[in-house]
Amino acid sequence: MDRHEEFMNRCRELAGQAAQTGNTPVGAVVVRDGVIIGEGQEATHPGNDITCHAEVEAIRDAVRRLGGMKLSDCILYTTHEPCILCSYVIRHHRFGLIVFEIAVPSVGGLTSPYPILTATDIPVWGPPPLVIQLKRG
C-alpha cells in the first residue's frame, strides 16, 4: 500500500470517530519521517469551540508531543481540504506538504476564492506548501 493511502486511512478512521460524536467527519494526521506525530478529529461540538478542526487538533497534538512549533519537515494529511482557518495555522507552522482527499470549494484554503494555503503575497509565511489532492480509488 502506498504511504499516502496508509496515512489517509488513519485520517478516515479519525473522521469516523468524529462522526460518532456528532461532529463533521473530518480526520487529520501530522507525519514526520514516516511516523504519525499528531492526530486530530473534528471536535467543534463537544466544547463549542469553532477552532477545534481536525487539522488544528492534529497540529496542536504534534506541537505538544514535539515540545516545539517547527513543523516544516512534516506532512499534514486530512480527509478534507483545509479550510481558511486551518490554512492559516498550516502556513504559520510552515508545512511543506499537504495531502487531502475531498475539496471544499466554499471555504477551502486552496479552491475557494480565498486561497490562503497557496498565497505567495504574505512574506512572513515563506513559500506555500505543495498541495496534493488524492483521488479515492
From TrEMBL:
Transmembrane segments: none annotated. Residues 2-121 form the CMP/dCMP-type deaminase domain. GO terms for molecular function: hydrolase activity; zinc ion binding. Keywords: Metal-binding, Zinc. It holds the Pfam family dCMP_cyt_deam_1. Coiled coil: none annotated. The keyword Zinc applies. This is Nucleoside deaminase. It comes from Spirosoma pollinicola.
